[in-house]
Amino acid sequence: MSENDYRNKDNKFDEYRRSFLGKGAALAGAATLAPGVILHTIANAKPVDEPVTSKVRWGFLIDANKCADNCNACVTACNEENGLTGFGRPKTDAQWIRKVTLRNKKTSHEISLPMLCQHCAHPPCVDVCPTGASFKRVDGIVLVDKHICIGCRYCMMACPYKARSFIHETITDQVPDVPRGKGTVESCTLCVHRVDRGEIPACAEACAKTEEGPAILFGDLNNPDSEISRRLASESSTQVRADFNLDPGVRYQGI
Q1: Range of the domain at 53
Q2: Of 36, 41, 213, 237, which is least packed with CB atoms within 10 Å of its CB?
């Protein structure tokens, strides 16, 4: 849906939100379209007009051991998928997923890993938002309703992961599925437009094609039979800033 389509709703926020929330999907898979061309999908995706359900909670498991220092495939894919254009402000340009380097002070060992919105079960950005623009879908995806975001940036201050950015410029040549607006806050949407039509997020799809192998695994954290749940149950993983008790939907290995 384009930005103009949203505007034509004449500020019917409740109608828009019901429509936005009324989508869902299930387990991850892949489909071969032609020799050498694979479309990574979420198998058994529900019709787009069927409401999402709390039975599903989408999330990532990111293996830092497979994330190469010089690889930015996930960042590039995210920028292209969501139409994120730089304006020459390296510290404040929109970047929904970024590579960070962690260094052990005792051993000097360094690792590189992607950092993004953690899609917390208890998101502080939602708690501090005065208008309700920041909200969490029942399937765990944290989003911003651009119609009622007033650009106060309380959510940016509340996020311990520095995962949100503010749009200073007028945005042109937008991607129809990802409306953005000057004066509003934004962050990773977990490629909700792709998830709702049965596809996996762009970063996970791009990472799976890299030489190192898939460092980013996407799936349903609530389904004990999903690959992500099986790995979390059998292998050690870490929550970034677990001391905050936010229950993030993004877990890491190798950090």
Answers
A1: 3-253
A2: 36
